[in-house]
Amino acid sequence: MTTDHGTGPTLTTGERDAELNKRLTEELVAFNTTATGAADRGTFSVKVTDEADELVGGLAAWTWGGLCGIELLWVHGDRRKDSWGSKILRAAEEEARQRGCDRVVVSSFTFQAPGFYQRHGYVETGRTLGIPGGHADVHMFKSLTERASSELP
User: Fold this and answer.
1) How far apart (Å, rounded) are the C-alpha atoms in residues 139 and 30?
2) How far apart are CA 57 and CA 72, in angstroms?
3) Which of 84, 98, 101, 125 could be bridged to 68 by S-S, CB 3.0 to 4.6 A?
């Protein structure tokens, strides 16, 4: 939908615009760097494939100012018993350390895996209520400078 206000700016809504998303990211990174002095360190992923090159699981994350943010972590249901989630998470934490991060944040819906992250030393810092079905989005934090005693080996 486009709203034209005559001679002024035009407001448009619709499906996600990849070009707009790229520009907004660039602008916010520049603003954040100026405001904090912390430079953007980028994004990374962890990927596991089987012998047939089929996806077993993976993780997508970003790093900025000594903080790592896990955006997505998924493991195929048939492979979860093989501890791939733990292996992927540990690999991501090590990559974050190598990139100069000393802490990690992640969120997980209550019907997903907050207990998994807590077993790996993540601590709940808050919740966003109102997820369909009476669920919540659980926000968690972990320091990478010390291993929590509750973290799995």
Assistant:
1) 26
2) 10
3) 101
